[in-house]
Batch of 2 targets.
Target 1
Amino acid sequence: MLVFLLAARGQDPAAVQAGGAVQNEEATSGISQEEQLAAARKRLGLDQPLLVRYGRWLGRAGHGDLGTSVFTGVKVSDEIRTRLPATVRLAVLAVVLTVVLAVPLGVAGATAHRRWPDNLLRIVSLAGASVPGFFLAYLLIALVAVRLRLLPPAGMGGPRSLLLPAITLAVGPAALVSRLLRSSLVEVLGEDYIRTARAKGLANLAVVMGHGLRNASIPVMTILGGLLGRLLEGAVIVEVIFAWPGIGSLAYDAIVRGDFPIIQGTVLVAGAMIMAINLLVDLSYARIDPRVRLGVRS
Amino acid sequence: MSTSGGRSFAARWSIVRFSPARATDLDAFSGGTGPPGLEPDPRPPARRLWRRRLFRDRAVLVGAMLLVVLLAAILAAPWLAPDDPTAVNPPNALAGPSLRHPAGTDNLGRDIASRLLHGGRTSVATAVAATLGITFLGVAFGVIAGMLGGLVDTLVMRLVDVLSALPTLLVAMVVLGVLGPGTDKLVLTVTLLGWPGYARVMRGATLVLREQDFIGATRALGASRLRIMVRHIIPNLMGPLTVLSTLDVGRILLALTALSFLGFGVQPPDPEWGAMMADARSYFYRAPRLLVYPGAAISLLVLAVNLCGDGLRDALDEKVSER
């Protein structure tokens, strides 16, 4: 695990660094003369060999110093610190919406297994997984913000402006989770202990919610890590469209402008977040499913 | 990616969903591993059974029909398209639907219907190319890691771990931002970032297969490891592989169009659905048509593929089907 963490840390900024340097040269050569270019290179330490630069960057990054933006001169760590809360807020609301959408749909699909509501939900959730986020975003803007004037179309102004981007982010994952929850719940509801629960006279709802849902959520948990990672990635597009000032739009602007310290910083932070999430999910998985500890499979 | 992304997501998901089905699938495909001396199984062979289940599924039929219609339209683009997809006609910009331009014209007066049809070719071709590339790399790395084991296995799997820990869409954006955008680079980047999930599944399946008796028998007959891999392991992986890549084409298409939408993929004036939507952003309030048509086209195509993939998985997964 440690090797994997170290390797991942080493891998991505190296590629980014190499690329960032190339692009910076292009960017500066467009606006400055030859000697200015050389000076700029020297100032940024670009006259050093790649490995030296990479080692230096890694050493500084270890102390929390990610360099400064080539364009604005703002420290990368400050830039990320001011942008991160917006992304976290967006992601948290999106996760909540995912659960709120997926659980009822999954339960409804499983309890109506093989009947028309199940088939309808199948189409709905597949459609939800098929619509690209950047299309859904514009549909929501057109319908909710422009036609109905319920919510602001873009930007960050109060909690209401958080809703549209969060819905956009949540639809895809919600569709997948509801599908998985449905098939997992169908399987669980066929188990003997469900029949026992029914036999002792529990109401259908109590059986499904208390005995079924809990066990059915175990396989769903395993995909949660990847799901959250995917959500973070989707955040890039959603933040760009909704002009949401988070990490995603920061990274996008930096890539477009060739601001390589920012690019490195955001990729590092995003990678670290994904790894942290995966670790947390792995740990919580062992905690939620007692069979993982006992080593006994039913 | 993303959307892709979410490579790790799809991979994990597939592993979870396949694990119960995999062993039975492989048993069926490896030609019956049931105990000898028993009466022959009166049920029809597994292959015909799943095929029958597949065609009984109305959602699959709808998906397949949709897919055939869309693909036919896209393939016939040069003959169906009313106009040259790149011919500009500024005086006639943003025109509404007419007989000559059934879907109207875009901001440069180009025929939207023609651009949709031709753009579909690019989108579908890139998605198919990336899927094939990812499948090839995934099978190659997975089977080699699973068969050889030891140091090779460790190295390949660490690489897989590292790649799947990356925020794929973001890294793809960075790579394409550095290399410069372009259709070929787009496909290459998505392919190179996309194979780890497949490698993991294929390695797992190879480890299961490798211990089976028929592989031991082949080895006893003196077959080389290469021959065992190419002639015996890979053909037996085709079942799960088909399902995996069918389920994945849609996701890959979404990732590719997303990258094009952000300006890192197909470049103007070439028509492509994601790029068309990016062009349409500035005209969204005046002519939402420009954005809605390509968006709907992507959604429909991905939905068609997903319906087929979903049905295929259900049909092959005995546990789900027989309940």
Target 2
Amino acid sequence: MKTNEKASASQTLAIARSLAALPRERAPRSLLPAVLERVGLGDRYWQIETPIGRIYVAHSRAGISMVSRARSARDFEKNFASRFGRPIGPDPARPPANVRAVVAGRLRARDANLRFDLRGVSEFERAVLLKAFEIPRGEVRPYSWIAREIGHPEAVRATGSALAKNPVPVLIPCHRVVRSDGHIGNYSLGGPQNKRTLLEAEGAQPATLEKLAASGVRYFGNAAGRYFCFPTCGGIGSLMRENRVHFASGREAIAAGYHPCGDCRPAAVA
Amino acid sequence: MSTTCVTEGFPTRFDSPGLRLVKGNAAMPSADALTADLAADLDVAFETLVVSFQDRLYSFAHRLCGNREDAEEVAQDSFVRAYRALKTYPSDRIRALALQAWLYRITLNVARNKWRRKRVRLVSLENGGADGEAARRAWEAPDAAERRPDSRLEQEQDRAGLASLVATLPERYRAALILRYVEGLRLEEVATILKQPLGTAKSNVHRAVNLLRRAISDSRRAKRSRS
């Protein structure tokens, strides 16, 4: 009898072990999108006209997940599906007023209460994007400024790559980030010409900036206030010409007794 | 005035000038963090719930039903049902939910309803109904086709064999056995999911093991006599 009990206990143990060893099945990839679709949380997109043509703005319940151009709605749907691994359909509703206002330039993005869905974006890339988000309309900053502001002054190149991968251009204005030498730099949403068009539409005057940079001017100084700024800084754009001095570098400005502007922060404040 | 971002996983918030950022972790949130997020904004956090539990519920459904098609349907229906329930719950109730047990129970109920429908179809077969083939297959050992020993490795064959023997156990024992040993839950949690007293859940697990042991030796005997 005892032997039987022992045998049965060890069999039970063996069965328990082999049951525990059954592999956990992986849910098929179709499960998540099917569930979200059925409960009304599937991805949707709007089509919005802009100075650079029609853009497609994808959004999930979490927020705006992708902004891109495409030859057709069908192409956009295909791109989205291959990038995110889930289907997307057109949103029959109009884009909300805040999104339209930001795209049209009637509202600053940072005041628009926008929601972004940035899953799949790394911690570093997110920091870069959020910093770019702070650049006001009509102004530009160099890549090195973002790198310094997020605490990685050496990571200028990585900053450029992070901006190139910006999933939500226009709304997170990576077009407001340009090269330190005055060149406008690349743009993921259809190339440098589109970047120029967007900046012009915002009043940033990229051609003037390039000319200034070519003549060696990177900063404007306010002779009365003894501070210096990026040329597009809102505070200094309206400076009287007689007050304005030019600097080729932050070091030169500081050597001349000027301190960096607190709004556009053209150099690290010591 | 703010902006909201959602990144990997569940939403949490931190501030930056002019920005309300909803940010998450690549790692799955703890159950408490998840229920808090669901209570705060169901529509934002629901996807994280699905991602966190889809393998567990699908796997459970597969062990219960014995085939992939039914498992996917059951898992899908379970999440839809969970969403609709959460929609009606006040946030206090969501925050207090034992999420894992609650979801397993929903899955079990959805699977039970499915079997009930299948049984109805069988009755129609006995009465000369037209749905004969499907109903017959409902009673065939699940995944029978997959078990045919054409090109499978022996271990996979053993596993598939074991899984399909589990799927032939009577439902009350099968659910208890899968939850306890395949899903590895504590007996208390098994009892909660089955809505049974602890002692009943324990004896159901025990009887399930005995039944499975008998089924294993029967199937070995059958195999030997075939060869």
